[in-house]
Amino acid sequence: MIQxxxxxxxxxxxxxxxxxxxxxxxxxxxxxxxxxxxKVFPKSKKENLRAVFEKMREVxxxxxxxxxxxxxxxxxxxxx
Length: 80
What we know:
With about 80 residues, this protein is mainly alpha-helical. Helices cover about 35% and strands about 10% of the residues.
């Protein structure tokens, strides 16, 4: 089955697929370079995680926790 996948080709030649794809076997692919610029640049998992942590810091998530060790201990006690 032929599929069309969207990807971004960086100036270094690195190709990043916009969606994840799983294949049962290796397959040959042809790449067509379009003239238009990409609307969204994919981020690495590390960059996405860093952005989440930054957003958590901005909104003050967990800022009400005075003693993190005691908070974790209380959570663990709830499981028992």
